[in-house]
Amino acid sequence: MARRLDGRVAVITGGAGGIGAATGRLFCEEGARVVLVDRDAPAMAAVAAEIRAAVPGAALHDLVLDTAEEAAADRIVAEARNAFGPVEVLVNNAGIRAYEPLAEATAETWQRIIAVNLLSHAHLTRAALPDLRACGHGSIVNISSTHAVNPRPGMGQYDATKAAILSMTRSLAFEEAAHGVRVNAVCPGLTLTPFHVRRLGRDHADLAAERVDNCLLRRWADPREIAFPILWLASDEASYVTGATLMADGGQKVL
User: Fold this and answer.
1) Can you spell out the DSSP letters for 75-100?
2) Domains of the chain, each with CATH number or no CATH
3) Are 246 and 185 within 8 A, CB to CB?
């Protein structure tokens, strides 16, 4: 049985985080030639080593860049072309958080979170579109959040950028349909990434076993459970899907 992304060139940002790393590994398992991008050099090196150990023969190129810088977009696409060829799949996953109420939000925080969570997606999409259009089966998957549609107090900046990603996804889907490029979004729910393990200061196994009450499945998602919907949208199995928002949130309750 053919692998779902066999030979295709995929760029994944936020590659050293939980969802990005899991997606990078799954794409490699499915035959993609993957360019994994993150600004955290030690974390990127560790993730790349883990993927190469787990997936013998993985076609993986790890790249340390800050996607918030506009110039990084052209460099990422150039690196992908040099390593493997024109970009056929783009997963915009880079993101940061800000924990402060909107009444206290500073211009600096706003500028940084918009640069990473929204503008990095826009710049890299623009840079990759010539390749995505030319290949005839280009796919963009933007990673948003369940909180794009179910916002919370204290994280308004993050939630606002994630809502903007959904709007941008739909606009791009309209604009790029004529060029054969599909554009979709995934909204993860509570996902047990290394970020949350560090933030909560608790053991990974204890958190994984913990009952949670904000979703119907009553548990955290494993990052690989988010990677599979991303894989599906990136593949030809979703060839008739564009402009869609896929909620991978365990049945998130609306507050």
Assistant:
1) HHHHHHHHHTSS--EEEE-------S
2) 9-248 (3.40.50.720)
3) yes
* Residue at token pair 């790029």: 176
Half-sphere exposure of 221 (CA within 13 A, CB side): 25
Rg, the chain, Cα only: 17
Distance CA 177, CA 246 (A): 18
The DSSP call for residue 246 is E
- Which of 140, 158, 229, 234 is catalytic? The answer is 158
Whose structure tokens read 């940084």?
112
The answer to whether the beta carbons of residues 40 and 65 sit under 8 Å apart is no
Q: For each successive 10 residues of the chain (255 residues), what is the average pLDDT?
A: 91 96 98 98 97 97 97 98 98 94 96 97 98 98 95 94 98 98 96 72 73 85 96 98 96 71
Q: Tokens 């024109």, residue?
A: 86
Residue 158 is a catalytic residue: yes
Residue identified by tokens 């800050």 is: 66
Q: In what order do the strands lie in the sheet with 139-143?
A: 59-64, 33-38, 9-13, 89-92, 139-143, 182-188, 245-248
Backbone phi and psi for residue 147, each to the nearest 5 degrees, phi listed first: -80, 0
Q: How far apart are CA 238 and CA 216, in angstroms?
A: 26
The three-state (H, E, C) secondary structure of 135-153, written as one string: HCCCEEEEECCHHHCCCCC
